[in-house]
């Protein structure tokens, strides 16, 4: 069972690293949009300046969510929220976050055909606790990424509108 739990843990760590990489890219893009919008902030046309200011605000919110997600590490493992009639993927972070430690260990033992006589020890439970914690952090990071991406999209929309208005003015 330990090998199975270690494998799941390693896969979840890869997912978490992927989520952090996405945040790094989002932060870089939002920062570039801020620099772009600052060039148009001082223009005399009030609507262009307003769009540039909106672009900066949305980008700053995107960067803020990106940094919050990169620093997200603390989670609590609560009660299990699983339903008995549903088949869960025990390797998928969004399904794992629904389990508590005991339920997860029992489900892994059952679903992956571990010997019936096998009694999970403290290391199995600690690995399960780590798996659930990493799954929750990963889920949180992806949620913040979605919010960050939404504000980056709004920022880019303002930037495109600024370019179009300047193009029409010329």
Automatic annotation (TrEMBL):
Question: Taking every annotated instance into account, which residue ranges of this chain make up the domain Pycsar effector protein?
Answer: 5-166
Q: Which residues cross the membrane?
A: 21-41, 47-68, 149-169
Q: Does the keyword Iron-sulfur apply?
A: no
InterPro entries attached to this UniProt entry: PycTM_dom (IPR043760)
- What is an example of a Pfam family matching this protein? PycTM
Annotated compartments: Cell membrane
Keywords in UniProt for this one?
Antiviral defense, Cell membrane, Membrane, Nucleotide-binding, Transmembrane, Transmembrane helix
Q: Which domain of life is it from?
A: Bacteria
Official protein name in the record: Pycsar effector protein domain-containing protein
User: What organism does this protein naturally occur in?
Assistant: Candidatus Caccopulliclostridium gallistercoris
């Amino acid at each position: 069972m330990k090998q199975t739990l270690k494998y799941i843990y390693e896969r979840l760590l890869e997912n978490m690293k992927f989520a952090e990489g996405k945040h790094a890219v989002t932060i870089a893009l939002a920062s570039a949009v801020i620099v772009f919008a600052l060039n148009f902030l001082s223009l005399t046309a009030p609507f262009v300046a307003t769009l540039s200011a909106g672009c900066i605000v949305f980008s700053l919110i995107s960067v803020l969510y990106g940094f919050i997600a990169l620093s997200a590490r603390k989670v609590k493992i609560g009660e299990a929220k699983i339903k008995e009639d549903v088949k869960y993927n025990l390797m998928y972070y969004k399904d794992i976050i629904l389990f508590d430690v005991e339920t997860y260990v029992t489900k892994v033992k059952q679903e992956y055909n571990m010997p019936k006589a096998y009694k999970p020890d403290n290391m199995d439970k600690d690995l399960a606790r780590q798996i659930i914690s990493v799954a929750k952090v990963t889920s949180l990071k992806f949620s913040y990424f979605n919010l960050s991406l939404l504000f980056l999209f709004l920022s880019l929309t303002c930037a495109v509108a600024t370019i179009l208005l300047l193009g029409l003015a010329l």
